[in-house]
Specification:
The chain is of the alpha/beta class. Helices cover 39% and strands 18% of the residues. It has a 6-stranded mixed beta sheet, with helices on one face. The chain has a 6-stranded mixed beta sheet with strand order 8-9-10-11-13-12, with helices on one face. The chain has a two-stranded parallel ribbon with strand order 1-2.
Length: 386
Amino acid sequence: MSITVFNTLLIVSVALDLLVAGAVLLRPWPSAERTSPRKIGFARFVLALSLIAVLLVGRGLIVWPVTRSEFAAMRVVYVTLVVSLPLIGAGLLALAVRGRLLQRRYQVSWAVRASGFLMLMFAPLGAYATFVEPFQLVLETVEVKLAPAREGDRPVRIAVLADLQTNHITDYEVGAVEQLLTLEPHVILLPGDVFHGTAEEFSRERSALRGLLSRLDAPGGVYLVKGNTDVPSRLAAAIEGTSVILLDNELAATEVEGRRLVIGGIGFDYRTAQAQAVIDQLELAEGDEDVRILMAHTPDAVRVLRPNTRVDLLVAGHTHGGQVVIPFFGPPLTYSKLPRHIAGGGLHELEGRRVYVSRGVGCERGLGPRVRFLCPPEITLLVLEN
């Protein structure tokens, strides 16, 4: 299903919600009661919401078989919450005011008025989550302590630019790269999901994307792994002629600030024989002096590392931090099997295995809702020191 058709479906869905709500809440009263104020009570309000919920389920049953995308279903729910419900809430409040001004033509109960006000509040929340927070890029600076046996006494600065996940290069993406370069990192890591769009969109953005990636440079190198939205041929075209090195189940060694770093990069499927071979080389190679880093798109790769592994740090993205965080609960959905507090982002340790999960720069694209709430995008500076 094209995005144009899908957006048209969403508009029709909102209109249908409003028609159903209007039919239930404003249906004519019996003729004997027409001279009395028309009452909109809580029971009728609940009935209207129940019918809208039924319509929502019906849309899901239509959208899922056609798109095979849970993100499309999420967008349907999101539009209902931040467009349909606020419009209904605004209508109820308008009726309450109009009823008072025009000899109480409508009598809206206080429970319905309060509910309408709460529904109306979803609109500014949706506007913030869609148009504000997705562009409030923050810098996360994290100290990573190395074992005393690691050679060298100067800190190493590693910048992480995860999940750019764009389908159009704008000032936002350019600003993210510029801000990252001001950190003067020794190494730059890109844990995948560089581009998320159609073949037509990539053809249009290819030159701009390559120009953006060509700006990335660091003394110790710029390294990339493939994410689940990255098409291999497009990714190769995007980094052609740049300093970015794709690690496709491969190892790379570099020296910066008197330290030797060995960086392993594995594919999205971290359980393949090729990925495991890279992990084995990092874990089993002799020596305590070098710093060993594993980069994977998904943080779930930490589960295949041995407890108290020789790998100093796993760097990953993929989860976007969940994009939506509920206070005192965390992200409801992370697409990771790790505990929510780990998949939600940051530096964590799991049985002696350290992992840093970036919330990423971009958002889900395609048919999914572009939304972030209490989960701002990030670029990261990891400072490795003894």
